[in-house]
Amino acid sequence: MANHAPLVTISIPAYNLGSYLEKTLNSVFKQTYQNFEILLVDDASTDHTAEVIAKFAEQDDRIKPHFFKEHEGVSKARNYAIDNAKGDIIVFVDGDDLLDPTYLEVIVSGFSDPKTDLVIVGFNWGWRGGGYNRQPGFEEVTKRRAYDSINYRGDGIGGYTWNKGFRMSIIRDNHIRFDESLDLAEDLLFTADYMMASHKFLFYDVPLYNKVNRGNSIIHSATYQMRAKEQVVRRHIDEMGMKLMP
């Protein structure tokens, strides 16, 4: 990486998260690693999310707020962050989740090896405790192992984007984007495309990302059509995996 303390871009999309976003942002500001920018996109919320964003942006100029005029979806918000990121590393944080104070520090330390393409950390999410051995330290995992986890529910690596740090250079060089036509599994497809373009993967099997379970989230309110498209994406990911090269 180009410098000793690389800039991290934190992408946070927010849609009607006025009751959650403040806690999420506070967990970001409590990070032990402080060289970051926050690309915070309000996706045309109808609650007080915009007011929360404006308040925090006034207090810290590392927040770069953007306000969609119409509801566009999480993929477009994350693509906005990709297009405007100034960081060497990007992480994708959901606007209702909470970060362990060392989340960014661990991700950045994993990228201290210039050969590392992807850094993965453990997580807590209801039924899952976030790790297998839960011992601090990086483990290198094979491309096959990492890729096979994408479609496997309950895996500590998984296809989620929020427990991973990505190199912006790989995203840009390979034109990797979130599919804006998807409401579900857009993160799985993005991770699959990124892994296909990558080679060295580090896994820190300690839960540093805390997923907050909201009853009205898209996971719980998805329609039959959304679920059907998700299954098409998952089959596509499996087909891509059959052509996987180390």
In this structure, how is the largest beta sheet organized?
A: 9 strands, mixed
Radius of gyration using CA atoms only: 17 Å
Number of helices: 9
Query: What letter string, H or E per element, gives the SSE order?
Result: EHEHEHEEHEEHEHHEHH
Q: What's the pLDDT, averaged over the residues?
A: 90
Shape: globular
Helix content: 25-40%
Question: Low-confidence parts lasting 5 or more residues at pLDDT below 50?
Answer: 127-132
What is the structural class? alpha/beta
Total beta-strand segments:
9
Distance between the termini: 23 Å
Q: Beta-sheet strand percentage?
A: 15-25%
What does this structure look like?
- The chain is α/β, with parallel strands linked by helices.
- It has helices at residues 21-29, 49-59, 74-84, 103-110, 143-148, 168-173, 186-196, 218-221, 224-241; strands at residues 8-14, 36-42, 63-67, 89-92, 98-99, 118-124, 138-141, 164-167, 201-210.
- Strands 1, 2, 3, 4, 5, 6, 7, 8 and 9 form a nine-stranded mixed β-sheet that branches.
- Strand 2, helix 2 and strand 3 (63-67) form a beta-alpha-beta unit.
Brief sketch in words of this structure:
It contains nine helices and nine strands. By secondary structure, it is of the alpha/beta class. The two termini are 23 Å apart.
Entry keywords:
20% strand
